[in-house]
Amino acid sequence: MKRLFLTVLVAAALWSSACGGYSNSIVTPPPPVGKFSVADLKGQYAFVTNGESFTGGSSATPLTRTGSFTADGAGNITGGVEDVNAAGATNLAVQITGGSYTVNADGRGTLTLLLGQSSIDFGITLTSISDGLMIDETSTSAQSSTGSGNFIKQNSGSFTIASVAGPYVFDFSGLNATQGPESILGQFTANGGPITTGVEDANDNGALATAAAVSGSFAADGVNPGTLTGFGRGIAQLNGVQYVFYIVDATRVRLLSTSGGMLSGDAAAQSSNVPTSVSSINASFVFIVAGSSVNGGITRVGRFTANGATVTNVLADTDDGGRFIQTNSATTASISLDATNPGRGTFTFTDPNFASTPGTYVFYLSSATQGVIQETTLANNAVFDVADGSIVAQTGSPFSSSNIAGTYALNWSGLSLQSNGVFATQDEEDLVGQVIVSSLNLAGAADIFQFQNGVPVFDLVASGSISIAGDGTSSSGSSSRNTMSVRLTKSNSTTVNFAIYFVNPQLAFFTNNQDSNRIVAGILKAQQ
Amino acid sequence: MKATIRNRAVALALGITLGMCISATAQQASHLDVQQFRTYEVTRESFLLGTVVKFDSASSALPIGAHVILQTSSGQMDVHLGNAKVLQAGHLELNPGDNVRIVGEPLALGDSTYFAARIVQKGAQAVAVRNARGFPLTLAAAMTESQKEALRGVR
Questions:
Q1: What is the distance, to the nearest Å, from the Cα of residue A429 to the centroid of all Cα atoms in its chain?
Q2: How many C-beta atoms surround the C-beta of residue A10 within 10 A?
Q3: What residue ranges of chain A have pLDDT lower than 50?
Q4: Could you read off the pLDDT of B126-136 as tens digits, one per residue?
C-alpha cells in the first residue's frame, strides 16, 4: 500500500509539476470525430486482459482476467462477472454489480466495472459494434492494474454446454505453476461436454512437448451454475488443468486457467476447409509471436510465401531484449502439414544471421487463412524462447495509401524502461488508441499506462506516418520492409518506431524496431 | 516457516550450483562463439567474484533491464541482472564497493556478450534473478506464500 501511495503521489507530483510549469505546452487531441456513440456498445461482451497488478499486500505481479459485462447502450453497465488469476492466485466469479462507460465518436472511450465496493477501469477503442480493444487502467487506492486485451460481443443463444461442439484450435500462454513462461497450443474436438480427441504442443519453461494428446471436458460451474445461462461461463478441464471459460458464441470460447499457474487464451472453431496436404497451400502468411527469451522479452513479426512445401520471401523483425534483428532472407525454408492432425503443421527457416540455428515453429490452422503459432527454435538442444501468437494469410496487396486508409484502432503491449521519479526499471507498457490514416499519415489519440508510474496517462495526441515499401515479396527483402512511426504528445512527446506487417488493408501486426529501451508489439485494426 | 523453507531452498540451490562450479573460473565473454551461447544451459554455469563498480536498475546496455559492472580478477564484466524489482523484492541492494558472487553464464547478444546472472549473492544473502532455464524471473517467483495469498484479493 505504501508503495502504491508513493507511486501515485510521485506521479501526481510529476504531473502537477508538468502541468504547473508547462501548462501552456500541454497538447490535447482535437474533438473526436467519427460514427460511434454509447449506443454502439450494447449487449453482453466477453473480455480478457493480460498484464500486471499491484495491491497493498504484494509487489507488482502478473495478472490476467476474463469475464463478461453487459452494456445497456446508454452508458450503463448493468451486470456481469469476471474471473481473475494473479500469478496463480485466483479470485473466481467476482460479480460485476454495475458500472458505466463512454464511447466517443472516434470509438475511444472508458469502461468502469463496479465490483461491490471496488472498481476496475479500462480504456477502450471500438473496432466495430461487436468488438473492441482495451487496456486496464485501474489506479485506485486499493489496486493498480494494467494489461492489454479485447472484448467480443457474446451470443446468449450459445450459452449452453452443448454449444461447445466440434473441433477447436486453441492457444494459451502465461506462466506455469512455478512462474516460468509457458505456451500451449493445439486442437481438440468437444462433443457437448467431453473432449473426445485432441493434440497439443507445449513449451513449458523451455521444455517442449510435441503433439501430445488432449483430454478433458466442459461443464457448468457447480458452485455458480447460473453463470452458464447468464454469462456463458463454466468450468473446463484440459489435461488435468482447470479453466474457467466464457462462451462468445459457438465459434469461440475464452479460457483462463484456475489451477497450475496462470494461462489464458481463446479456443476458436476449426473449419472443415483447413488444408490437409501441403500441396494445397499456395499463399503468403504474416505471423507474430511474443514471449520470453533468456534476454528478457522477445517479439517477432514476419511474413513468408508458401507454395507447397517451398517457402520463399521470408522477412521478419525481432526485438530480443532490446536488440533488433532484421531477417531479410532465408537460406533454407519449408513448411509441412501433419497428416494425422488436421491443421497442425511446422514451418522452418534459416536466417543468415544465425546460420547454425534454424528457426522452427509449430502452428495450428483454424481455417485455411488463419491460426495460432508457437516458436520452437532450438540452439544447442536448448529452447531459445517461449513465444506464441497468430498466423494469418496475407491478402489485399499491393498495399498503398489508397487502401491503407480510414480509421484504425491501435494497441500495443510489452515492456519499457520507466521511472517513477524514485526507481527506474523495466515494466509493463500498454497503449490503446485510435488513428485516422490519410495519405499514410496518422492522426488520433491514445491512452498509455506505463505501470511503474502507477497512473495511466489519458488522451495523448497520436501522430505519425506509415512508410510502405511492399508486401515482402520483392527479391530484396530489405527493400520491402514497411515501417510506422507513432509520436505521442502530451506535455512532452516521444516517438516510437515500428516495423509493420500488413495482413491485409484492415489489419497489421507490428513490433518496435528502434530504441532499445522498449520491447512492444501490437496491432492496427480498421474500424468497421 | 514457509519463507524459511524457501530461503533454505535458494541457499541449497546456490550451494549445489557453487559446488558444481567450484573449479570453474570466470569466463571472458569476448571469447564466446555467438551461436554457441544463444541459449542458457545450467551445466555451463560458472560464477564471478568481484566488486561492484556500478549498478544501474535501468541500464541502457543490452539486454534491457538491470545491469551491474563488476570488477573481477579478469577485468570488468557487464552482468545482466534481469528485472531490478526482483532484487528489490529480495531486499538486496548493490552499491559500489560491494563484494558479490554471481552465478550465471556468458551469453551472446548479437556481436556483443554479457554475463547472464541467475543468482546474485552478497554476504549471506542470495537472490535468484533467473530460473534454471535462464528466463529472467518476475516478481511472482519471489513472493512468499502470504504474499501469494494476498493476491486472491486482486480484482
A1: 13
A2: 19
A3: 1-24
A4: 999 999 999 99
Confidence of residue B11 (pLDDT cuts 50, 70, 90): very low
Compare CB distances from B40 to A86, A382, A418 and report the shortest one's residue: A382
Measure CB to CB from residue B89 to each of A59, A355, A516 and give the nearest one: A59
Enter the CATH code of domain A157-269: 2.40.128
CA distances from A343 to A128, A170, A214, A386 (A): 29, 12, 15, 21
Domain boundaries, chain A: 42-153, 157-269, 278-394, 406-471+479-526
Are A322 and B64 a contacting pair at CB < 8 A? yes
Nearest CA to A49 out of A34, A72, A26, A65 is that of A65
For residue range A247-262, list pLDDT tens digits in order.
Answer: 999 999 999 999 999 9
Report the gap between the CA of B72 and the closest CA in chain A (Å): 23
Determine the Cα–Cα distance for residues A132 and A122; give it in Å rounded to an integer. Answer: 12
C-alpha separations of B86 from A289, A309, B21, B65, B131 in Å:
26, 45, 24, 11, 12
Inspect the interface and report whether the beta carbons of A380 and B60 lie closer than 8 Å: no
Region B131-154 average pLDDT: 85
Report the pLDDT value the prediction gives residue A106, as an integer from 0 to 100.
98
CB contact under 8 A, B41 and A180: no
Residues 79-138 of B with CB under 8 A from A: 80, 82-85, 88-89, 107, 109-110, 116, 130-131, 133-138
Q: What is the pLDDT of residue B105?
A: 95
Residue A382 pLDDT: 85
Q: Does domain A42-153 have CATH number 3.10.690.10?
A: no
Nearest residue of A to residue B67, measured between CA atoms: A425
Could B63 and A295 be called an inter-chain contact, meaning their C-beta atoms sit closer than 8 Å? yes
CATH number, span A406-471+479-526 = 2.40.160.20
CATH 3.40.1390.20 corresponds to the domain A278-394: no
